[in-house]
Amino acid sequence: MNTFKVVIKNIQHIKSLEYEIDLSSNKLHCLVGKNGIGKTTLIKIIQNFKETNTLDKMSRVNIINDNSKLTYTIDSNDYKFDPFKDDSRFILDCNKAMDEVTKKEIYTEFPIPLGRRFSQYSRLGEYTDDVAAKFSSNTYEENPNELIAILNNIYQDNRFNNLKKVNVKSEDIYLIPLNDENYIREDDFSSGEYMLLQIYKLIKTGAKFIVIDELDISLDSSAQVNLIEQLRMLTGKYKVNILFTTHSLAIMKTMNDDELFYMETIGDETTVKNMSYSYIKSSLFKFEGNDKIILTEDKMIIDYLKTFLDSDNIFSKYSIIDIAGHSQTVDIMEKNKQVQFLGTNKILTILDGDQQNHTNYKNKTDIKFIPFESIEKDLLTAYELGELDIYIIGDIDKDDINRANGRGKKSKALYYSITQRGYMNFSSIITFLENKCPSNTLTFKNEVKSFLKS
Asked: pLDDT tens-digit profile of 374-411?
């Protein structure tokens, strides 16, 4: 199984959603969105492929109607679910038998009371005598060194150093001996510790696609961040993809750019798209207490703005937010006009100069452009024209620059080489670039200051 795709029509709050995940990537997929947007419904639908009565069994009210449809595409195989009425309820039925091998590669985990880990308590009780017998005779399996290291790294202590594993009826069960007569079995661990054990067990089963609703439950912010580091290591080692939902800003901030996915609904269409942390934070949390907000497409623009704003104290209180990417930045500004998730603050968007001829951005008073194509690209142009020779005393990494594919990557390679070798710092680069276009620079600075003073 390399790809998993599902097209959803008219199930609970979701009118229309097409969700696809590349399972050849073997990585973390962090799914975030506002409450009630449909994250848990999506996970139930993923589980429904494995257990086709999931939507009926796990929902308190009937979330299916006569217009509901599901189409799963696993690699090149399609499985279509259409509604039929059973007494007073609508139920979805598949047009063909589900692939059993694929079903075994998918695991989902929900919070209490729906999570499968909570159903394990009673079953573990059936093994009490067997576990006690193995404990009494010191009949343990090999030391679970990997799991011990993972738990110690997450909790930053050594409480699991004496963790032991016994195998009862082909199932691994973990315990910590207290003395010769007593031990703590895994179902007596804290809820957070027990959840981590179950996730580890799922990974060790050889699952290809593990889905966890509300990963952050029962873990403090420090443990959450450490958990992400450990899970990222495990996805690569065991060739598994882990999709999880969270409301934790600590976790969101820890994710790599390609690991964060935002779920939102516009009109009747719900989407799941790869988005930056700044975009998601701006969408989910209002910025209160600021009269003005400036949105930028990258962190370097923020650094540039600070060169001439930090020294001026005449402005009202403002925030500068890096959204990452010009289209996402403008999108945030336009959406705020409708739903005001950034509050009622006045907003200005600032983009690189290479976007000023963009059809959607021209002639908009709430979008301004820095006086350079971009700081890095203008620096590359000056380098190619020989204008930086007086600054560069030694040899820069010309091979790295020449190997870079595309102008954007070449400009970043040059910027890194110049700043890391100490030929020019950010301040001297800005001074150099501003001196090349003094009139445009003055106009830009006055526009920004005018916005902040208004």
From this structure: 999 999 999 889 888 777 656 666 766 777 777 888 88
pLDDT in tens, 147-189: 999 999 999 999 999 999 999 988 899 999 999 999 999 988 8
Pairing status of strand 260-266 against strand 28-32: parallel
Nearest in space to 69 (alpha carbons), one of 53, 80, 55, 77: 80
What is the distance, to the nearest Å, from the Cα of residue 344 to the centroid of all Cα atoms in its chain? 27
Element (H, E) at 171: strand 171-177
Closest by CA position to 170, among listed 127, 229, 230: 127
**Dmax (CA) of the chain:** 85
Query: What's the N-to-C CA distance of the chain in angstroms?
Result: 57
Neighbours of 194 (CB within 10 A): 19
Supply 319's token pair. Answer: 């925030």
C-alpha span between 342 and 260 (Å, rounded): 20
Instruction: Give the Cα separation of 57 and 34 in Å (integer).
Output: 25
**What are the DSSP calls for 323-372, one per residue?**
-SSHHHHHHHHHHHHHH-TT-S-EEEEEE-GGGTT-TTTTT-TTEEE-SS
Strands 367-369 and 346-351: parallel
Asked whether the beta carbons of 396 and 423 are under 8 A apart, the reply is yes
Which amino acid makes up residue 159? R
Nearest to 19 by CA among 4, 30, 34: 4
Alpha-helix runs per DSSP H in 221-325: 221-238, 249-254, 277-284, 299-309
Residue 69, Cβ density class (10 Å: 0-12 exposed, 13-18 middle, ≥19 buried): middle
Residues 403, 381: Cα–Cα separation, whole Å: 17
The pTM for the full model equals 0.68
- The Cα-based distances of 352 to 156, 355, 357, 375, 439 in angstroms read 43, 6, 11, 8, 17
Tell me the C-alpha distance between 51 and 43, whole Å. Answer: 12
